[in-house]
Amino acid sequence: MNGRALPLASIGVVGLLAWAWLVQIGRGMSMHAAMPGMQMSFGMLATMWAVMMAAMMVPAAAPSYLLHARMAQRPLASWAYLAGYLGAWAGAGVAYALAHWGLQRAGLVTADMRLASTALAGALLLAAGVWQWSPLKASCVSHCRSPLGFMLNEWRDGLAGAFGMGLRYAAWCVGCCWLVMAVLFVAGAMSFAWALGISAYVLAERLLPLGRAFDRAVGAALAAWGVWLLGTAIA
Predict the structure, then answer these.
(1) pTM of the predicted model as reported, rounded to 2 decimal places
(2) What is the mean pLDDT of residues 96-117?
């Protein structure tokens, strides 16, 4: 297998396994949620969210991973980079799980894993929409859109160095997308369609030359949805 085929095959296999695992976990969660009065443990939620975040971010990880593989020419180092990147997102998933667990204990999450409070859902969407217009979002997304600049400025040799690079690059991506991912609390935490949609949005944000107008358009849509839900809650 040549130098280009191995990284492509690697990211493809990782993506297929992550999404297959997510589907399997989703089926188990759906069965558990159907049991009246049953609440999910933090461990179950942490597993669900960690796998979901990793699966959703495999496509977005591909451009920087493939670039690292081309520059490093060492498969083990590039796999370490990918592990660091997806590991950071799995860690973010545990943070979402903690929020989910707290909301569940407060009675604010429905059986199908949506926010039970229309006002809270509207406020979350409004916050996500405003974040899309913020300078911090712009700073984060500019780093995510420039993996070559990151590689040139942050290069580290060795497995530990590559793993750390994956963590640092993922940190910019988490900053870019953390509130967009939180939309799953409104759409349904185990909605496969929404997970695919958000994953596609993140990939498009990285690859397409749409600039800030794209982020702001998505932000405006999220904010409008949030205002509509807030109006529904007040009415």
Answers:
(1) 0.89
(2) 92
Q: Provide the residue range defining the domain that includes 131.
A: 5-234
- Ordered DSSP codes for 35-79: STT----HHHHHHHHHHHHHHHHHHHHHHHHHHHHHHH--HHHHH
Q: What is the three-class DSSP state of 115?
A: strand
Confidence band of 189 (pLDDT split at 50, 70, 90): confident
Full DSSP string of 155-203: ---HHHHHHHHHHHHHHHHHHHHHHHHTTHHHH-TT-HHHHHHHHHHHH
Using N-to-C axis directions, what is the helix angle for 192-207 and 5-33, rounded to 10°? 150
d(CA 150, CA 110) in angstroms, rounded, equals 41
The position carrying tokens 């809650």 is 233
Q: What is the pLDDT of residue 211?
A: 78
- Residue pair 91/170 in contact (Cβ under 8 Å)? The answer is no
- Count structural domains, the chain: 1
10-14, 95-99, 223-227: the lowest-pLDDT one: 10-14
Give the whole-angstrom CA distance, residue 82 versus residue 87: 8
For 62, the token pair is: 């591909």
Closest CA relative to residue 184, chosen from 167, 168, 202, 170: 202
